[in-house]
Amino acid sequence: MKALLAASLLALAPIVAFAQSEVAAPADDIRDEAPVVVQGVLPGPGLWKVAKGNHVMWILGTQAPLPKRMQWRSREVEAALAASQEVLYAPTLRLTVETGGFFRSLLLVPKLYGARKNPDDQTLRDVLPAALYARWLPLRERYLGRGRKAERMRPLFAAQELWEEAMDDNGLVQGGIVGPVISRAVKAHGLHETRPSKAIKVTDPKALLAEVEHAQLRDTGCLEKTIERLEAGSDHLRRRANAWATGDIEALRALPDLSQDRACTEAAIDSPMLRKRGGEGIDQALEAAWLAAAETALAKNASTFALLPIADLLSADGYLAKLQARGYEVSAPQ
Question: Is 144 helix (H, G, I), strand (E, B) or coil?
Answer without folding.
Answer: helix
